[in-house]
Specification:
Elements lengths: L2 H13 L14 E5 L1 E3 L11 E3 H14 L1 E2 L2 H9 L8 E8 L2 H13 L4 E5 L1 H6 L4 H11 L4 E4 L4 E4 L3 H17 L2 H12 L4 H10 L8 H8 L3 E5 L13 H19 L4 E3 L10 H9 L4 E3 L18 E2 L4 H9 L5 H25 L1
Parallel strand pairs: 1-5, 1-12, 2-3, 4-5, 5-6, 6-9, 10-11
Antiparallel strand pairs: 7-8
Helix pairs in contact: 1-13, 4-10, 6-7, 6-8, 11-12
The structure holds zinc ion.
């Protein structure tokens, strides 16, 4: 089915009320996650984590018309006090801590008095440091070389066409997402060395969307209704390949830095957040560090059966009709969540036994 036909059929099924049938399966609130919002997207291949302002405004208008946007604290209190969870409720979250959250998202949500959570990576905030995926994509798409060799990966890539460049960037990002933190830093350095500092200055100015907030910005955004949560110190993906001490360092450092600025750091979003990105060590550490809740990117609604430390979230980075469709059928994801969750707990128990045997 072509994209235009799919969009038309989704619009028709929404207008005629057919999508409302899916709502029968809904059992609880939906936690949505975004990254950034930009007035204009210049290159979607580089700025893929940001959505256009016009789309964001339409999505929020849909939520204001058909749902109730609540604060994360209200959701937590509802779970704690066993209030009946309302499937109409939605919680807005933003990962990474981009500056456009302050300049574009904050004023808009403040005008409508809508609460939201921004999950920040504290090192990127402290050092005004962009994320490895930005450097990889930008370097590979914008180097003048027709091929590159990355020593950190011991691998060369041909970059003769845009398709080859996109494929190379995807491959490098996949490797980086599964690598220990030290290797991620080497891959990033390798990619950065493919362009001159003048070229980086030019591209960073062009793609200002990927600039992180400063601590001052983070303070300012809290006055607009944001709660600041942790997204680790280095945006470190907490998969089984990370050292146990590194996982604890990531959570402890980011939590302490946020508490130093805002007194509290109650919520965590695991970077990348799929079930493969959350080791049993990370899951236990999130519990022992006394976060109130820790969010994954596993699809589903927050129901009385959801795990507070592997809480589901749904990506909102999508075209308007796809967004409405997804919002209407969140209840259909709950079965998948239960399955993924029980597999995760089984693996978790197995890892716990292995660790106990090796101690
Ligand atoms: Zn992230």
């Amino acid at each position: 089915m072509s994209w235009a036909i799919r969009r038309l059929s989704l619009a028709v099924s929404r207008y005629c009320g057919a999508q409302r049938l899916f709502r029968l399966w809904s059992k609880g609130p939906t936690v949505l996650f975004y990254h950034g919002v930009e007035k204009k997207i210049l290159d979607p291949a580089v700025q893929g984590l940001h959505i256009p302002l016009r789309l964001f405004e339409r999505q929020i208008a849909f939520l204001r018309r058909h749902r109730e946007i609540i604060s994360m604290d209200y959701l937590y209190e509802s779970i704690l006090n066993r209030y009946e969870l309302d499937p109409r409720q939605v919680i807005l979250t933003f990962d990474d801590g981009y500056k456009n959250n302050l300049h574009i998202v904050g004023p808009l949500l403040e005008a409508w008095a809508l609460p939201f959570v921004v999950f920040i990576s504290t090192r990127h905030i402290s050092e005004s440091r962009r994320f490895p995926t930005y450097y990889i994509r930008t370097a590979i798409l914008h180097t003048e070389k027709k091929s590159v060799y990355l020593r950190s990966m011991n691998k060369g890539f041909y970059l003769a066409t845009r398709e080859k460049r996109l494929a190379a960037a995807r491959t490098i990002i996949q490797v980086a997402k599964r690598a220990p933190l030290e290797l991620v830093e080497q891959i990033q350095a390798d990619c950065m060395s493919q362009l001159t500092s003048e070229k980086w200055a030019e591209l960073n100015a062009r793609f200002s969307s990927d600039e992180p907030m400063s601590w001052e910005d983070a303070t300012q955004i809290t006055s607009m209704g944001a709660t600041i949560g942790s997204h680790c110190h280095d945006h470190c993906i907490l998969h089984v390949g990370q050292r146990e001490e590194e996982v604890h360092r990531q959570l402890a450092k980011s939590k302490a830095a946020i508490e130093a600025h805002f007194l509290e750091c109650k919520y965590l979003a695991y970077p990348n957040g799929t079930v493969a990105d959350i080791s049993s060590v990370a899951y236990s550490a999130a519990k022992s560090r006394q976060f109130r809740m820790a969010f994954s990117t596993i699809l589903g609604e927050v129901t009385p059966d959801s795990d507070r430390f592997l809480a589901p979230r749904i990506s909102a980075d999508r075209e308007y009709e796809e967004f409405c469709y997804l919002l209407n059928r969140t209840g259909r994801q709950n079965q998948v969540y239960q399955l993924v969750h029980s597999e995760f707990l089984q693996q978790n128990r197995a890892c716990g036994r292995e660790r106990a045997q090796t101690v």
